[in-house]
TrEMBL record:
InterPro entries: SKP1/BTB/POZ_sf. This is BTB domain-containing protein.
């Protein structure tokens, strides 16, 4: 701790949180050099006697205030384990115009366990204008069904543009795979075609059902991993498609190449947009 006497005009300040009577004592010099809000406050005429610590009552709880003061003093901080803590700290740091704590929080949210909560990360990043963090969060959100009821409270707190960007990313992946599955080299065109070997009439209904299943799965989980890692092997629609043969009992032709079709679908998913 820097001695008060070594800094002209520096005094001790008592800071009291809103939820209890805990006192945090800190040099006014530290507050003035790390906070625009306190710099302005201490530029006003002070009522307290010169050597008597002034007490400032703040709106933050003791846990938030302690973490904030540890950050501006350059001391070891308490680990951040939830976004409730992050949001409270960010709000306080922005309120008191403290860029140092904001930069620390920006680094910490990109580490576990905070990194495992993409929508909360996205909310914090878009509110603060952190572009790279928002992109990372949007990529991680592809493993979620953002339309599920449990995610609505978070989405409702986002600004309109941020919500639309996220919805558009999820929609573009779903519609992107739908468009590609209806184009070459996949089976396209008429619902009725002929067997390339015996020219017997065939109906590609098993392929249409598999396409529909893929698109619906991408709507629920746009990442696509459940499609390529599990679905194309285990779904009833996939099994029926790979087992489909020419209806001519004298023709052994298998209608769809499982290995090649699965590879093409994987490539299509890999080509879809990955971030906002």
């Amino acid at each position: 701790m820097v001695e008060t006497e070594s800094i002209p005009g520096a005094t001790l300040v008592n800071m009291m949180p809103v939820n209890d009577h805990t006192l945090f004592r800190i040099h006014s010099w530290t507050l003035k050099t790390t906070s625009g809000w306190f710099r302005s406050l201490f530029s006003m005429p002070q009522q307290s006697p010169p050597n008597h610590p002034e007490t400032i009552n703040l709106d933050e709880d003791s846990h938030t205030l302690e973490s904030l003061l540890l950050m501006i003093c350059g001391l070891s901080i308490n680990p951040l384990t939830s976004y409730d803590e992050v949001d409270a700290l960010l709000f306080a740091a922005e309120k008191y115009e403290m860029p140092g704590p904001v930069s620390l929080i920006r680094a910490l949210i990109m580490t576990p366990p905070l990194l495992d909560q993409p929508l909360r990360l996205y909310a914090a990043a878009t509110r603060c204008g952190w572009v790279e963090e928002a992109k990372q969060a949007s990529a991680q959100s592809l493993a979620l069904n953002i339309y599920a009821p449990e995610h609505q409270p978070i989405l409702q707190k986002l600004r309109t543009g941020a919500v639309l960007d996220l919805i558009n990313l999820h929609r573009d992946r779903r519609e992107g795979i739908r468009k590609q599955l209806n184009e070459q080299p996949f089976v396209t065109g008429s619902t009725v075609a002929s067997c390339p070997r015996c020219r017997w009439w065939i109906d590609h209904h098993t392929w249409r059902e598999l396409k529909y299943k893929v698109v619906m799965e991408m709507d629920i989980r746009p990442l696509g991993d459940t499609v390529v890692d599990v679905g194309l092997t285990n779904w009833p629609e996939a099994i029926a498609c790979w087992d489909a043969k020419c209806p001519n009992t004298e023709c052994p032709h298998v209608l769809y190449d499982k290995v090649e079709t699965s590879r093409l679908i994987r490539d299509c998913i890999d080509d879809l947009p990955k971030t906002i």
